[in-house]
Amino acid sequence: MFMILNGLLIERDKAHIMADSEGYNFGYSVFETIKIYKGKALFFEKHVKRLKNACDQLELSFPYSTDEVKKYCCDLIAANEMETGIVKILYGKNKNTTDMVISTRQNTYRKEIYDKGFSLCFAETKRNPHARLTYIKSANYLENILEKQSASKLGFDEVVFLNIFDKVSEGSLSNIFFVKDNILHTPIVSCGLLPGILREKVLFLGGRLGLKVNQGEFSQAELITADEVFITNSILGIMPVSQICDYKMDLSNNTITRKLSDAYYQLIENQ
């Protein structure tokens, strides 16, 4: 397997970064994970735009053009013979310079997982809408990892964060949508969430399908009593939710979720 380090295609086990870099020691870095579908990185320009915006907010210089990064990713996808999977761009501070590491891995989500749906529980930690890193996809992911590990030990697939005002925010690796009385709802960004690329696409698709779409503030009870719930991220796409804590949800009733999923697959076929 190969990876890209600062523009160079090298074997994975020969890639090294400085052990005293700020990116390694303090998580002073940002990243994007992008779905590979039929050999192509989906919504690539959107991901790189978000990466560059995060760099600006963290005062990280980014000397690469979008076309340069795209070429690196395409070269790596071809070298690793990835028809489907994931490409990750990690960009971090290293003293007076920076490092860009691009890697690939397999996508482990299969049809049977979507048929079963995800189970969710709620995190003990609260999201802070006023925190500077809340809206940046930085490598400071330990809080998310710990909460997801705790959920996994209890048998759940994903964990939902409420914010400090007890409003639904986001998952550890996902954005949250729910349907109530044929209206599509999702927490507004100011609730303290990372606005995902797939979140944006679902909002667009919902409008195109003629759905009423509402971004707002929602309680835990409103999520639990929804008619349909699903989560999104760039790798999952649209994942139905079949359980929230002890509450079971009948996926056969997921009319709107299925319509959005069908529209999403049509969208990526045309990428």
Automatic annotation (TrEMBL):
Annotated transmembrane regions: none
SUPFAM superfamilies linked: D-aminoacid aminotransferase-like PLP-dependent enzymes
Gene3D superfamilies membership: 3.30.470.10, D-amino Acid Aminotransferase, subunit A, domain 2
Gene Ontology molecular function, alphabetical: lyase activity
Necessary cofactors: pyridoxal 5'-phosphate
Signal peptide annotation: none
One example of a Gene Ontology biological process annotation: amino acid biosynthetic process
InterPro entries, alphabetized: Aminotrans_IV (IPR001544), Aminotrans_IV_CS (IPR018300), Aminotransferase-like (IPR036038), BCAT-like_C (IPR043132), BCAT-like_N (IPR043131), Class-IV_PLP-Dep_Aminotrnsfr (IPR050571)
A Gene Ontology cellular-component term: cytosol
Top-rank taxon, per record: Bacteria
Keywords linked to the UniProt accession: Lyase, Pyridoxal phosphate
PROSITE patterns according to UniProt: AA_TRANSFER_CLASS_4
Family from the record: Belongs to the class-IV pyridoxal-phosphate-dependent aminotransferase family.
Protein name as catalogued: 4-amino-4-deoxychorismate lyase
Species whose genome carries this gene: Geosporobacter subterraneus DSM 17957
